[in-house]
């Protein structure tokens, strides 16, 4: 095992994307600043993800089939690393060096959504005494210097995000940021550099996409909200981080590749506004409920505005089923009613 002064554990949440997970894990092993530990949270994948991890020597046995609680497999993976950086010895004669990586695989007993997965991953990573946790989905690809550059800038905050670029068009951002100078959207890599100061864009992040968080932050703001299931849990966690006073920033030298956001926006007739609406009941319910909850908690003046946008939309484009989803999700968000998303599966 590589002994380092600062212990960093990567937390990867996965569900039925074993090929993307395979590439993500390879990118993590290729980091110029090697990980101290790797924690994979599997939300009960049905695509033979455990078999792939066994084949790739991330785990040494398969999980049980009849689990009723999260099942942990802890094993050691030997990683062959090209000598360089802080692994280089004084002789400079070796080309490669092997090190042992502590790999933890958590097989969830049911699909708890991204929110449940990150809740479990952050909880376990924190309880194991890591100094920093590096959070990402299975379809993210960190650049080989991403972790090194994040740690080099750790004085800039306790919630540090990589710059998230589109995996296909690598000069564009996967998710927009906003300029601290004029609040306009930042959509390209060059715009991100132009709007940075001392290598960072303060107060901006694309959470849970190459996001480095400290144990100091976790001890102050707690864990991600598992009740949200999907959509919004990362935004809610960022809101808590912003209000903690411990610092949120995007580090532009740390690059993380991710598929471009494909959120579907629908225009509201006779206005210049739009709403987020996928047409998939489960996703729309979770999105609306979680958005209403976040607005109620942090931006109370936005609750009525958000409600009116959807009311106007359905007034011009009647959709009884869609209106019912919106109505139920809105009032569940307002009154903290969780667990009802299963009604829309």
Keywords:
globular, alpha/beta, 14 strands, 34% helix, ten-stranded mixed β-sheet, 345 residues, 2 domains
Count the DSSP helices.
10
Reported by name, the CATH topology of the largest domain is Spore Coat Polysaccharide Biosynthesis Protein SpsA, Chain A
Written as H for each helix and E for each strand, in order along the chain, the element string is EHEHEEHEEHEEEHEEHHEEEHHH
Largest sheet: 10 strands, mixed
Structural description of this entry:
The chain is α/β, with parallel strands linked by helices and 345 residues long. The protein has two domains: 8-258, Spore Coat Polysaccharide Biosynthesis Protein SpsA, Chain A (Alpha-Beta Complex); 265-344, no CATH class. It has helices at 18-29, 49-55, 113-127, 146-152, 189-194, 215-221, 233-244, 281-298, 300-316, 320-334; strands at 8-14, 37-42, 71-82, 96-107, 132-137, 141-142, 159-166, 172-178, 185-188, 200-202, 209-214, 248-258, 265-267, 274-276. The radius of gyration is 21 Å and the shape is globular.
């Amino acid at each position: 095992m590589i002994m380092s002064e600062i212990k960093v554990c990567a937390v990867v949440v996965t569900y039925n994307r074993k090929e993307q997970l395979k590439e993500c894990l390879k990118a993590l092993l290729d980091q110029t600043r090697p990980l101290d530990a790797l924690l994979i949270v599997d939300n009960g994948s049905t695509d033979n993800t455990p078999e792939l991890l066994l084949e790739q020597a991330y785990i040494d046995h398969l999980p049980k089939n009849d689990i009723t609680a999260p099942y942990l497999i802890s094993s050691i993976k030997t990683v062959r690393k090209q000598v360089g950086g802080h692994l280089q010895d004084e002789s400079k004669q070796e080309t490669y060096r092997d090190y042992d990586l502590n790999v933890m695989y958590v097989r969830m007993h049911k699909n708890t959504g991204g929110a449940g997965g990150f809740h479990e991953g952050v909880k376990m990573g924190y309880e194991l005494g890591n100094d920093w946790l590096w959070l990402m989905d299975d379809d993210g690809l960190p650049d080989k210097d991403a972790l090194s550059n994040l740690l080099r800038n750790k004085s800039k905050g306790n919630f540090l995000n990589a710059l998230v670029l589109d995996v296909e068009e690598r000069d564009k951002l996967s998710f927009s940021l906003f300029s601290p100078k004029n609040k306009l959207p930042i959509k390209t890599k060059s715009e991100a550099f132009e709007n940075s100061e001392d290598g960072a864009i303060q107060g901006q992040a694309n959470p849970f996409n190459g996001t480095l968080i400290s144990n100091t932050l976790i001890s102050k703001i707690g864990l991600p909200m598992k009740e949200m299931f999907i959509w919004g849990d990362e935004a809610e966690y960022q809101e808590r981080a912003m209000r903690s006073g411990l610092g949120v920033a995007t580090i532009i030298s740390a690059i993380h590749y991710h598929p471009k956001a494909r959120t579907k926006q629908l225009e509201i007739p006779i206005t210049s506004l739009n709403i987020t609406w996928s047409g998939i009941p489960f996703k729309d319910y979770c999105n609306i409920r979680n958005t209403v909850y976040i607005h109620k908690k942090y931006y109370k003046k936005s609750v009525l505005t958000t409600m009116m946008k959807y009311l106007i939309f359905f007034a011009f484009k009647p959709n009884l089923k869609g209106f019912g989803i919106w109505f139920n999700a809105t009032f569940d968000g307002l009154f903290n009613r969780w667990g009802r998303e299963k009604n829309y599966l």
